[in-house]
Amino acid sequence: MTCVKTTCPYCGVGCGVLAQPDGTIKGDPDHPANFGRLCSKGSALGETIDLDGRLLAPQILGREAGWNDALDLVATKFSAAIRYYGPDSVAFYVSGQLLTEDYYVANKLMKGYIGSANIDTNSRLCMASSVAGHKRAFGTDTVPGTYEDLEEADLIVLVGSNLAWCHPVLYQRIAAAKAARPEMRVVNIDPRITATSDLADLHLQIKGDGDVALFNGLLSHLANSGKLNSDYINAHVNGFDLALESATADDPSASGLTPDEIVEFYAMWAGTEKTVTIYSQGVNQSMSGTDKVNAIINCHLATGRIGKPGMGPFSVTGQPNAMGGREVGGLANMLANHLDIENADHRDAVQAAWNSPTICTKPGLKAVDLFKACADGTIKALWIISTNPAVSLPDADGVAEAISNVPFTVVTDIMARTDTGDLADVLLPATGWGEKNGTVTNSERRISRQRAFLPTPGAARPDWKIICDVAERMGFDGFGYETAGDIFAEYAATTALSQQFGKDLNLAALTDADYDSLAPTQWPVGKQTRFFADGAFYHPDGKARMIAVTAPELSTGKFRLNTGRNRDQWHTMTRTGKSQRLGAHLAEPYVEIHPDDADAIGVDTAELITLYGPKGKGIFRALISEKVAPGNLFAPLHWTRQLSAAGVVNSTVETGVDPISGQPATKSAQVDASKCDVA
Ligand code: SF4
């Protein structure tokens, strides 16, 4: 039976997979992300490829329709909204599940042909704060590290990252390296004790959002203990004095750690040259997310621990193609090829490369604001592609209401019933993993192919094809691609613009490569793969910037709710929910609560708790555990209204966003909790 080399569709590790049409799945021993390893989710992929519940034909108002009717209607409604209300009256909300080719044409249509930047993505919930932090520090959104650095480091510091559950193969790689080199140490900084803590020599149970205070304190400690790299700072860094002044004003005990813990951590960090600081959602999903990122990067810049093997800050992305989305400008505040909407030269260059009739002139609405604009009537036509915001966004009930309020909503999905799809006027069936072709980019900037190995189900079509068909019906040239490979070739050619403006996202060398046989390739292509090795950064003066950041006031509510992921589920369980094996791990929605808090509200093990947010509530099974600190709760986000009549956790979550990145603070929702007497 044919065995196809493809890439796992779940997390940003981007593991290579060998897949057969009968559902046999193995890790690809040749893929440099995983060298044959797979986690529980990846190894169960074969159990998730049946057609149960699949959307196999377009639907208009709940009735099956032909593609021509559905596409004509979508094109007509979007064109009418643009004609009567202007380009900013329409919006796309897309996903880190999309392949780069899908992302590219959606972005091209909205920004270059419709002329609005109202295209945002669920990656806004994943890593927008890292993007903003990178741009502030380096002058561009560049992740400097590689997975090999994690194995070469003598000290791994994990911040807000339950790698064991959320990026399991990276965790396995670090665990294997630590077993081979017992002198390697791991510090886990997390308000919650997690499976990742098992690997840690030191677990620091920080207060939620105590990260800036802790890393500002580290910067002060490095200065006071003679551990700065002054030569590096003088040659390659701006902003040191102000950053240190700000850091010195902060008290590291605001992190909630004891003086002994702080001293031990600072001594380890200061005394270990080869240090990698890994961070993910616990850092990003915060109202101070961008400042947290820069507080971490400041410490690496101040010691010159960046651009060298086994050291550097390392942001790991949650979704399989969050990185690819960043590359093609799939965020409302970015242009393709890491160029800037606010820069007229960048806009002109992208418009010329696309040969498009227009180009957006200002950033569009970021995810939370996009749905507020749906609620207040600004958005007249909305297209949601491959994501389930009525469950996954904060204030989930409000988001569902906002979608209902839009006069015309299209949802493209692989499934016939989702909480979001149920609100659509038009449903369009997409091909899913194993049925479509394209590329994804993982957390270390490695581009890998997803390849089809299954037949196309029903009338489903690839996302790029659906988007291009609508674009052509709206009267736009420039979307006549025959294959995903055609799109990739155009995209790769346009990345030459990146170099034209002094950046390094240049895939032009891949333009002529054989797309079908494209091996996993790290960018920049055809150059050094280690960024910043020469101390050159992307700000106009060639230097990096340390950013002065200040620890935020910590919120004080009754309970602080941290939402996240389980080991064996992915997002709203569209795929992983099909595997009985995966469902056996944690079978129902729950909330983790400290024994003292459980006592205080009179809840015993496995009884039910009602969580109340400012706008919604939900009922969850009590998991009483000392792994969460008193006053803190943890609940997974996976269960939808269709899977749980007791409500979805994001109905209870109402938070602000990081003022720079627009990323919602979904680790720190203020909620109330009480015992629920419903059996
Ligand atoms: Fe898939 Fe991530 Fe698991 Fe790798 S670690 S198999 S990419 S879910």
From TrEMBL:
Transmembrane segments: none annotated. GO terms for molecular function: 4 iron, 4 sulfur cluster binding; metal ion binding; molybdopterin cofactor binding; oxidoreductase activity. GO terms for biological process: cellular respiration; nitrate assimilation. Residues 1-53 form the 4Fe-4S Mo/W bis-MGD-type domain. The keyword Disulfide bond does not apply. Keywords: 4Fe-4S, Iron, Iron-sulfur, Metal-binding, Molybdenum, Nitrate assimilation, Oxidoreductase. GO terms for cellular component: membrane; oxidoreductase complex. Its cofactor is Mo-bis(molybdopterin guanine dinucleotide); [4Fe-4S] cluster. Belongs to the prokaryotic molybdopterin-containing oxidoreductase family. NasA/NapA/NarB subfamily. This is Assimilatory nitrate reductase catalytic subunit.
